[in-house]
Amino acid sequence: MAFRLEAVKNKQGTPFTAGSLRRITSWLLASTILCCAGVGLSSPSLAQQPAPAPASAQSRAVQFSIPAQPLPAALDAFIRASGWQVGYSTRLTDGHRSTAVNGAMPPAQALRMLLAGTGINVSLTGANTATLVGPNSAAAGGAAPAGAIALDTIDIQGETAWGPVNGFVASRSATATKTDTPILEVPQSISVVTRDQIETRRNQTLNETLQYTPGVLAERTGQQQFAPRFQVRGFSADGFNGAIYLNGLRGATNWSDIEPYGLERIEVMRGPASVLYGQGQPSGVIALVTKRPSEKPIHEFQLQGGSFEQRSGAFDFGGPVTEDGKLLYRFTGLLREGGNGIDFSNDKRAFLSGALTWRPTAETEITAYSLHQRNQGRWNFGLPARGTVLPNPNGRIPVTRFIGEPDTYNRTEMTVAGYNLQHHVTDSLTFRQNVQYSRESWERRDVNPTSVGADLRTVNRRAESRHVTRDTFAIDNHAELKAMTGPLQHTVLFGVDHRRGKTAVLGNYGTVGPIDVFAPVYGSPVVWSTTDQYAERQPENFIGVYVQDQIKLDQWILTLGGRHDWADTSIVDIIGGSVTDQNNRAFTKRAGLGYEFDSGVVPYVSYAESFTPLSGRTFDGSPLRPETGVQYEAGIKYQPRDMNLRITAAVYDLQRQNVTTADLANPGFSIQIGEVTSRGFEFEAVASLTSNLNLTAAYAYNDARVTQSNDANLGKRPVTTPPHLASLWADYTIREGALNGLGFGGGIRYVSASAGDFLNTFEAPAYTVVDAMARYDIDNWRFSLNVSNLFDNQYVVGCFSLVQCNVGRVRTVLGRVSYRW
């Protein structure tokens, strides 16, 4: 039986008072290691009145503007406006049209008005939940006639910003606001890769999950099975610079590629995000949400095999632990091994995650989660430019060539444990606390290229070993208040977050012989230094206080935010005995304004800032100032009420300032006069037009240039920054007849040429890649086949220098069988 799955909680109620403030502040003090204080937002007239008793969700007034239209589309609009959860069968609603509903009224009254004339009744099942029933249903007060088909009562959990999405089109996000907000109301560009998208494309790495996302270069370092590297709007966005967050917190993904099978959704917010997240690059935030416990039982086994001896097995279980639904669980695991087409590229991965959700009361929910992942493989340093993207008299270097040594390795291990707590203090006040501890280790022994000989076939190399461990504790506390001041509706967020980390680094260098890339002979011995070349400890401590107000006046939406950060870091040189302390303070701002038309069109403008602390000092001993980012963005979003479709388009002007550049008067030192400017346009369309057809389309134009520098790169493009990215994906599933359950589809990705070195003396050429998929569902079984790079196009993703050009994935075929019950 088909049913709608689109609803969220959206509690509004009594104004915030000084008494409420004292209660929530006391709770924050008792439940966290930080002290929080806040200011209530209310008009003078409201502040002089005693706080009224909390209004029920059924009686509070909500502004509705829903035109007459097909009933399923009208119900979708009602759910988005009210935040109610409505369960119904499409057999009941299809073919009916709604009555128009306009004005401020209680949601229950609006829902009954919407259904006027259809003969369908409403059964209220909770403060903000309802089920639609037929006119003769027992729930509607009548007895079902003999021979009638009884409609199942479906208890559904609607979409939330942290939960699963039905199909390709997400309607809500918390990444840009830390509140459960419709994407239409966010004045910044956001893309959501849903679980269905990941499953359909059979993504095995984080890099692969974002290949169809606008503005994201997802294969920047070529074929790597760990340590994802992204570029967003011309700037780096990966774990090293803090762009990747797990369940709302940073610290768990510095070097590790989290297994996509364990993720529920991936969100990309493009542009500065320091107002809510503190230090970070101006590229934005990549937010990962792990699979959560489910009210619906989940049981799945998977087996996979394919090219380059790839093989894997996985399982996913979840559902209620107790009959009353107060305790839910999720348990997911995966083992995988295989190559990627590069010589000696055999990789291994083990992943295990678990989660428990406990709902002791209707107002409180806590989800505890943990995961452990281990990876082992070899880092692929690419190939020289001459022989890949430039002519070489010796011929073309095979793209499968490995220029390291077979006995090298990269091993990463990651353990994460944390929880997400949400408590509704009143109908209008919600407290959330996110806590996470992570430990990562990265052990590598590499042989990497340094230069190319005059014969254009000999690659000189060096060896490096490194062992890094990192422990991070992060906590984020925030209170969300919904209040009214006259005609203004406020969603105020006040929060304090804290992150504390310690990194230990131990490294060594070695000498190793060169290699002939056209006729390689492996086994060259490595001679290591007898003592460690570097050993460091890097403690860090970050505290931020932030406030945000999302204000609505009729159809106007204004978002304002500000944050103050304290960032304290140190580098302790164990061998040299020196200590370098860096203490930075920063205040960042964001503002956005949008207008929501009745048609679902929302034009908007926004301004946002970022900051990134730097380590080091100038020649005169002054500490380096933080890098800063400033973005101006204007765009339009469209999500019609009668279609499962979202279209977004945006133009932006983004500047990264205080960039270090060489101090020509004092060699070996840097000065901060550098600036990189990135301007561009982005478009995205995502649709699940029916239960049969899914579509995604994306295009991005980015003009990134070095606009201030005292070096020769002034006016040049940064490396691996293609100006054009485009992609299209479509898949179709037959739902009836003899071929019921057969699905097929594919996608095409285009990446334009990009600068290959610092001075733009050569380019990595443009490339186009085609992917394809087919699947067949029968009973509880699913058989699927996915092909990456269908036509085996040999391409280079990008070059960092004449020595290193990273090759893309060769044709890879994966077959998978899944059993679900």
TrEMBL record:
<dbReference type="GO" id="GO:0038023">
    <property type="term" value="F:signaling receptor activity"/>
</dbReference>
<keyword id="KW-0813">Transport</keyword>
<comment type="similarity">
    <text>Belongs to the TonB-dependent receptor family.</text>
</comment>
<keyword id="KW-0406">Ion transport</keyword>
<dbReference type="InterPro" id="IPR010105">
    <property type="entry name" value="TonB_sidphr_rcpt"/>
</dbReference>
<dbReference type="GO" id="GO:0015344">
    <property type="term" value="F:siderophore uptake transmembrane transporter activity"/>
</dbReference>
<protein>
    <submittedName>
        <fullName>TonB-dependent siderophore receptor</fullName>
    </submittedName>
</protein>
<keyword id="KW-0408">Iron</keyword>
<dbReference type="InterPro" id="IPR000531">
    <property type="entry name" value="Beta-barrel_TonB"/>
</dbReference>
<dbReference type="InterPro" id="IPR039426">
    <property type="entry name" value="TonB-dep_rcpt-like"/>
</dbReference>
<feature type="domain" description="Secretin/TonB short N-terminal">
    <location>
        <begin position="84"/>
        <end position="135"/>
    </location>
</feature>
<keyword id="KW-0675">Receptor</keyword>
<dbReference type="Pfam" id="PF00593">
    <property type="entry name" value="TonB_dep_Rec_b-barrel"/>
</dbReference>
<keyword id="KW-0998">Cell outer membrane</keyword>
<keyword id="KW-0732">Signal</keyword>
<dbReference type="InterPro" id="IPR011662">
    <property type="entry name" value="Secretin/TonB_short_N"/>
</dbReference>
<dbReference type="GO" id="GO:0009279">
    <property type="term" value="C:cell outer membrane"/>
</dbReference>
<dbReference type="Pfam" id="PF07715">
    <property type="entry name" value="Plug"/>
</dbReference>
<dbReference type="InterPro" id="IPR037066">
    <property type="entry name" value="Plug_dom_sf"/>
</dbReference>
<keyword id="KW-0410">Iron transport</keyword>
<keyword id="KW-0812">Transmembrane</keyword>
<dbReference type="InterPro" id="IPR036942">
    <property type="entry name" value="Beta-barrel_TonB_sf"/>
</dbReference>
<keyword id="KW-1134">Transmembrane beta strand</keyword>
<dbReference type="GO" id="GO:0015891">
    <property type="term" value="P:siderophore transport"/>
</dbReference>
<keyword id="KW-0798">TonB box</keyword>
<keyword id="KW-0472">Membrane</keyword>
<dbReference type="Pfam" id="PF07660">
    <property type="entry name" value="STN"/>
</dbReference>
<dbReference type="InterPro" id="IPR012910">
    <property type="entry name" value="Plug_dom"/>
</dbReference>
